Amino acid sequence: MQRKRFQKRTEDFICENCGKEVRGNGYTDHCPGCLWSKHVDVNPGDRKSDCSGLMEPIGIEAKNREYVIYYRCFKCGFEHRVKSAPDDNLDEIINHPFKT
Predict the structure, then answer these.
(1) I need a surface site. Which of 41, 56, 67, 68 has the fewest CB within 10 A?
(2) Domain range enclosing 18
(3) Residues of 39-75 as b/e, b for ≥16 C-beta within 10 angstroms?
(4) Under the phi-then-psi rule, with left for phi > 0, alpha for psi from -120 to 50, and beta for the rest, what region is 99?
(5) 100 in a domain, yes or no?
(6) Among residues 77, 72, 73, which one has the least CA distance to residue 100?
(7) Chain segment 9-28, per-residue pLDDT in tens
(8) Closest-CA residue to 11 (of 36, 50, 49, 40)
(9) pLDDT per residue as tens digits for the range 30-58
(10) What are phi and psi of 61, to 5 degrees?
(11) What's the structural domain count of the chain?
């Protein structure tokens, strides 16, 4: 069984949901302002997905004083989860009307 391997990529981007300019740090995979993401990876950081659909944050889980954000792609329905980042908007994490 082959494990998913993370590929660090430092990329800046403009959030397609809210328009925020985001400075990447090599681990940035979602907008820290609105928490939305984009379906660009098959495995974390590989940029091999052909989908490119917007990923809506649909749930949140608190684990060991960290938050895990659950996503669903609007275009293809793919779901995945990621840890929140230190610069994420905590108010958005706490108050977002997640769909679950």
Answers:
(1) 68
(2) 13-95
(3) bbbeeebeeebebebbbbbeebeeeeeebebbbbbee
(4) alpha
(5) no
(6) 72
(7) 788 999 999 999 999 888 88
(8) 40
(9) 999 999 999 998 888 888 899 999 999 99
(10) -135, 135
(11) 1
